[in-house]
Amino acid sequence: MVIVMSQAATADDIAAVVVQIETHGGQAFVSRGVTRTIIGVVGAESVLETIDVSGLSGLGDTNRITNPYKLVSAANHNRRSTIRVRGVPIGPDTFTLIAGPCAVETAEQTLAAAMLAKRAGASLLRGGAYKPRSSPYAFQGLARDGLRILAEVRDATGLPVVTEVLDVKDVDDVAEHADMLQIGTRNMQNFGLLQAVGGVGKPVLLKRGLSATYEEWLMAAEYIAQRGNLDIVLCERGIRSYEPAIRNMFDVSAVPMVQQLSHLPVIVDPSHAAGRRDLVLPLARAGIAAGADGVMVDVHPHPEHALVDGAQALTGAMLDELAEAVVTLPALLGRTSAAHLTG
Ligand code: PEP
Ligand code: MN
Q: Hey, what domains does the chain have and what are their CATH numbers?
């Protein structure tokens, strides 16, 4: 059982809840976040049934939520949330295009990819400085040099930057250079990393784990929220299936389902789902039609020379074509393109 205190709860309110729990034989674990305090209650089922805190003061609304995830749940939210990344909105009213290279390779390549993204109307730049590679012999990313390049390209183009952080030790560095921190599919249940990004005050892009259920995904988001950071965007990027023709199976149901379960924005990454560039546009269209709040795609000035994921990287011309869908399809659904909002 979890008890979420309101933002206005005092130390006495928290102490009274703990006393109530302990008096009935339960154990209380108090976790103080940046904006609110959460009290985990452990004990036998029979003990938990006898604990009633409803008459106490300082309780948050979330106590009435029956889901295991409280802070990211759609309950108690009339509207889904809009998250801002350096002013760029991601949420239910707008549609946000994020594009860039899979990996930062050189300053020239990153700038060229960013110019393609900008030309197409993207409002955020993606690019990995720390790359989670299946092989330890594969290019692992430029690390801190890559972060520096991303910050320079952001300054040159005006596109805010989202980039992955792989390790707790790099969280502060990445937060210093980037505008949004990405948690990749392989780290969705790296709980220490989730807690660390929850504490740095920058928006987080949380990709769905390779084989994660919706509930596991939302519990991962809850780890970030529990540290006081509710600026979280969820990203469907395909799940493992038995079909070898595609890299991952794009789960289009995830978009409307998770939007029902959570107030957080949901975007899609058809590049990492498909693993091949010819499928990126149709999958993007499917994601948009399902109601996604944005699309993130790989683009490379020379996909044939890309050091990572070249097969799925769009050319500039293909990105332009995708961007057209990003203007026309969301408009049919009553949305405005974020790029057009932010100019
Ligand atoms: C990426 O976006 O560069 C990436 C590695 O994605 P994923 O974690 O979804 O594989
Ligand atoms: Mn990639």
A: 2-64 (3.30.70.1140), 83-342 (3.20.20.70)
The span from the CA of 206 to the CA of 211, in Å, is 14
**Per-position b or e across 216-225, b if 16+ CB within 10 A of its CB:** ebbbbbbbbb
Query: From CA 255, how far away is CA 248, in angstroms rounded?
Result: 16
Q: Which of 94-108, 201-215, 327-341 has the lowest mean pLDDT?
A: 327-341
| 3-state SS assignment for residue 319 | helix
CB 142 within 8 A of CB 131: no
**Who wins on pLDDT, 51 or 314?**
314
Name the H helices within 93-170.
107-120, 144-157
In whole angstroms, how large is the CA radius of gyration of the chain? 21
For residue 128, give the ligand 1 atom closest to its CA: 3
Mean pLDDT across 67-94: 94
For residues 281 and 287, give the distance between their C-alpha atoms in angstroms, rounded to a whole number.
Answer: 10
Query: Which 8-state DSSP code applies to residue 57?
Result: S
Give 29's strand partners.
Answer: 40
Give the model confidence (pLDDT) of 250-275 as tens digits: 999 999 999 999 999 999 999 999 99
Average pLDDT, the chain: 94
pLDDT computed for residue 251 by the predictor: 98
Q: Which pLDDT value is given to residue 76?
A: 79
Strand partners, 314: 299
Q: How confident is the model at residue 47 (pLDDT cuts 50, 70, 90)?
A: confident
CB contact at 8 A, 272 and 312: yes
**Ligand 1 contact, 128 CB (< 6 A):** yes
Among 134, 185, 308, say which to mutate for ligand 1: greatest number of ligand atoms within 8 Å of CB.
Answer: 185
- Site of tokens 């029902």: 260
Q: Give nearest CA residue, ligand 1 atom 4.
A: 184
* Ligand 1 centroid, distance to 71 Cα (angstroms): 25
For tokens 């989730």, the residue is 194
Beta bridge partners of 295: 97, 268
pLDDT of residue 135: 97
